[in-house]
Known about the structure:
By secondary structure, this protein is of the alpha+beta class. The chain has a single domain (11-177), classed as Gcn5-related N-acetyltransferase (GNAT) (Aminopeptidase), CATH 3.40.630.30. It has 6 helices and 7 strands. The longest helix is centred in the middle third of the chain and has 16 residues, at 108-123. The radius of gyration is 16 Å and the shape is globular.
Amino acid sequence: MPASALSTQPPGIRRATTADIPLLRDMAERTWRKSYAAILSPAQMDYMLTRMYALDVIAREIADGVIWELAVHDEAPIGFHACAFDSADQSLKLHKLYVLPAAQGMGFGKALLARVRALAGTLGARKVWLQVNKNNASAIRAYERAGYCVERASVFDIGGGFVMDDFIMALAIPANHPFSTKDAAPMGT
Length: 189
């Protein structure tokens, strides 16, 4: 979809279902190939996409309560996020957040981050945290603009001879967060 075809209206955000799994996989593939071309080798991208976005993996995550949501603009899917609440430490882990390359730079990522923050407050999370590749400068800048701070650097062995060399970033959620339950309801549904 050409960038010029998009307006600045916020996306509708809805809960993804098992029927959306092939779409989520396709969107991840298209986004990763462009976004990580200068960061990861094609072999590592293939390995990670298979490991993280196989149809059965996404289905299992949805069944296990991982929140997958799809962002839609002008009836076209433009991005998604996946996150999971941990009640033991009152945190929400943002596992994934991607916007299709043609829709990047238009505020849709910001809208998805705002949605995640609203979910965190509604679920009672005290922080949102994520992992981001140390070389993904544009994502790091976006997270910093949204209030996230680097907590530490970590290297994770993910098998297959590959590692993830990441920053752990976090956003504190105040006890009296300024969001209402309506803010955490999916938009546009």
